[in-house]
Design goal:
The chain is of the alpha/beta class. It contains 3 helices and 5 strands; from the N terminus they run αβββαβαβ. A 5-stranded mixed β-sheet has the order 3-2-1-4-5, with helices on one face. α2 packs parallel to α3.
Length: about 150
């Protein structure tokens, strides 16, 4: 009798059977960015063009090396022009970009040609800012040796 009572008091609880559906993400609507920023990094060896929104979130990017230029050809003005055109074509087509602020960093040959390429694509340039760092004063000189 004791065994039957123990069996009756033991209640097994099973988890209710629920259907777990995998969350399927719906297709996000295309983001429209009317105004953005273009960051041009022009070095002697390459030119990188990044198109961002006003907060700095990258939309598209392109470089001379990504467009098939190799070696010393990456540092040319023509390669910078092609890189800028490609990045801005994608931004205009996919995000509806129509006006930009341009930030230029570096002293390479692609500075001016990349800016000209922006206007040739049909995007309005609101401002051009040079953000190239400039040394001023240098480091503190080492003190004299104490005998």
């Amino acid at each position: 009798m004791a065994e039957e009572e123990i069996k009756d008091t033991l209640v097994t609880t099973e988890a209710p059977e629920t259907e777990v559906k995998a969350k399927t993400k719906g297709k996000k609507g295309k983001r429209t960015v009317g105004a953005g920023q273009v960051h041009i990094q022009a070095t002697f060896n390459n030119t990188i063009v990044t198109v961002t929104d006003k907060n700095g979130g990258a939309l598209t990017a392109s470089s001379a090396g990504a467009n098939g230029f190799r070696g010393s050809k990456k540092g040319t003005a023509y390669a910078a022009q092609i890189a800028a055109e490609k990045a801005l074509d994608v931004a205009k087509r996919d995000y509806g970009l129509n006006s930009v602020d341009v930030f230029v960093n570096g002293i390479g040959l692609g500075r001016d040609s990349a800016i000209r390429a922006i206007s040739s694509v049909g995007i309005r340039i609101d401002s051009i800012t040079d953000v190239t760092p400039i040394a001023h004063g240098g480091v503190r000189p080492k003190g004299e040796r104490k005998p």
